[in-house]
Amino acid sequence: MPSATTTTAARATAPVRQTREPAPGLFLTLIAVCSAVTAANIYLAAPLLPLMARDFGSAPSAIAWIASVAQLGYAVGLLFFAPLGDSANRRRLVAGLTLVTALALGASAAAPGAAALAVAIFVASAATVIPQLLVPLVAERAPAERRARHVAAVIAGLFTGIVGARVLGGLAGQAFGWRWVFAGAAVLTLALGLATAVILPSRRRREGPLFAGLVALPSVLRGSPELLRACVRQAGMFGAWSALWTSLALLLTGPEYGLSTATAGLFGLFGLTASAVAPLAGGLVDRFGAARVVRSAYLIAAVSVPLFWLGGQVMGALFAAAIAVHAALVASHVANQTLALTATSTPATANTAYVVAGFAGGAAASALAGAAFSHFGWGGVCGVAGVWLVLGWGLTSVRR
């Protein structure tokens, strides 16, 4: 019978079984596609509102608040789940959130009324924060000289999902009904989410309280001026984009152009600009640094605002402005998020602060833009966008 010493020595010299990691290309592609599908879940309701209203026997304006419920759910999910990427087992966390999202989307497809649908969409949106759990992992695994390009690949997938939800979701809803859109999203989310979970590291990253990242958010922001600067600048940029983009349908379907809702929705295809610009922006960040890319993005956004104003009467100006503002948004996003992910030793917590700041800036600007359009027309919306850009850059341009 072997002694305890012999057994211990044998264990010490035995080879350690390593988890086989996927090829970098496959890993990045799967995460980008998963991000596209899960990000789309947040925006599924918006193009389907008329179909839902007809099914529930109400006016579209009476259930328009359901689209806002999705945004609120996503914000809650960001605060509570995204910081867990610094401490929890990512594989189990992504798998669990995938199952919850798929079940909630299935419940959305079967919802008997607007209230039940709103609850299901809130849960689905809160659990579909998977992209913000994956971006810090991509930044962590990427070589330093290609980090921004890897982050940009995921961002390109995310924006593609947003565009797909707005454009393809509406077309699929017209063809098959809005319930089948949610059912299809549930199947896609389940398949891609679980496939992604399988390739993730299974170890827990840090010991300590599970929600320590959420508690640490204020101190992380105070301790990193670079992170705070990235948060404020992206809040300004995303706010300007949100003010213009969420109010654009009011201009296009109003007396100035008189387009149908379906035709106006095709303007969402300009969001594909983001998918094309993201890899280019990533390469520029890796080569020239985040600060120069953000400065250039703000200049492009500043040019797009007067183009949008001119677009109140000239359709061609709207085309040019839509391309410019999407290019500015995604370039700024790639640069600022790369900076946020590398500014602290807790990238998931820092990423949570960054995404929530951008989301808050966008939500506030959208609300003001709606009121501005009611009182001052399209020029008021352009004014809100300009103010947000001035605030985002001005508040961060003075260094101590």
Class based on secondary structure composition and strand pairing: mainly alpha
Biggest sheet architecture: none
What best-fitting shape do the alpha-carbon axes yield? globular
Count of alpha and pi helical runs: 17
Give the % helix: over 70%
- Report the average pLDDT across residues: 80
Radius of gyration: 22 Å
What's the β-strand tally?
Answer: 0
User: How far is the N terminus from the C terminus?
Assistant: 70 Å
The SSE order reads HHHHHHHHHHHHHHHHH
Enumerate the spans where pLDDT stays under 50 for 5 or more consecutive residues: 1-19
Q: Tell me the β content.
A: under 5%
Features:
single chain, 400 residues, mainly alpha, 78% helix, disordered N terminus
Descriptive notes:
The protein has 17 helices and no strands. The protein has about 400 residues and is an all-alpha fold. It is globular. The relative contact order is 0.13.
Helix/strand layout:
Elements: H1 4-13, H2 24-40, H3 45-56, H4 65-81, H5 90-109, H6 114-127, H7 130-141, H8 147-176, H9 178-199, H10 212-223, H11 225-252, H12 261-265, H13 272-288, H14 290-310, H15 315-342, H16 347-376, H17 378-394
Helix pairs in contact: 2-7, 2-8, 2-9, 3-8, 4-6, 5-6, 5-9, 7-8, 7-16, 8-9, 8-13, 8-15, 10-16, 11-14, 11-15, 11-16, 11-17, 13-14, 13-15, 14-15, 14-17, 15-16, 16-17
Summed up:
The chain has 400 residues and is mostly helical. 78% of the residues lie in helices and 0% in strands.
